[in-house]
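Q: Could you fold this chain for me?
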Amino acid sequence: MDPITNSNAIVLQLESKKSTIIIGQGILALLSLLIPYKKWDVIVAIISDTVYTLHKDVMDNSLALIDAISIQYNDSEQNKSYAYAERYFNQLLENQCTRNSMLLGIGGGVTTDFTGYLASAYMRGIDVVYIPTTLLAMVDASIGGKVAVNINAGKNIVGHFHQPDYILIDINFLHTLPENEWRCGMSEVVKHALIGDSSSLPLLLNKEIQYGHIDNSLYTCIYSSVRFKASIVEKDEFEKNIRAILNFGHTVGHAIESLLEYTVSHGDAVAAGMLIESYISMKEGMPKADFDCIRDIISAYNLLPNFSFDPSKIVNHMMYDKKNVKGKTRFVLLESIGKPRIGCEVNDALVMEALNFYLKMVSK
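A: Sure. Below is the predicted structure, expressed as structure tokens.
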């Protein structure tokens, strides 16, 4: 713990660059102390318009101290698009951004992803810093360097690996986080616990994490979840092997998002995907007791969205998944809780069975 900023730091020594994650409470006000802002000739902050409205005063004060130019962003999934990015590239040019400039993404996962994509492509790549403001962005979306935009055929199809120089996680932002956004983040916290974050798992099993309680249990859980993902990224920055475990729940989840045209949240889609892929895991040998435990955790945190879909169309949408190899869909399955297995082929009949199991379960 840094005694001056009352924060903890996790430093990733990556192949492409060093990336530093700083976690604390109230650290937005210390922004000018936490990043070497004088090294960049122009700093442009891409800010979620919702977040700016909620935190205008502290945002304006902190950004003024680093001489940042602010541009607001309507952070819907529909606006995280290849076409929408062009207007922001033009604004970067208008503000005289060079290859020595920096973009600062402030908002949820859509904002950090979109800002990262802009930074990766503008003048073949400039520096980027993230201040994630949702639980989902804090524990998952802002970490790892994956940046992308959507096209009509699917989610995150066009993108790059582009690591942030810094990620500043201020848990005070969670005071204003709506409950539905909280559940989205909890989906990723649960995912990390199921694939190997053994420190968070007991907190979840004991139901110590509660919406609206910004306390030591939450801080510990966020720190553990961030540290877990960072450790995986550090071992496999470009997802050649072990990093693929982070896609647990996402093969089905991304297909649901795409089929329903992003009218459902990423967190809800991943929660459904985790339960469906856990069912497949059980049918492929995972102990039933583990499946029951997973279902209980997901249910305890109210993560089971009751939406409907055509299972055969979900299977069709999986054809566009980036993890596919030679036209074959690849899943991350669990041998048991904490023991994921990557690159698993599953026949369509079992996938259909799992999808129908989910639909039947949530309709009761």
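A (continued): The longest strand covers residues 154-161.
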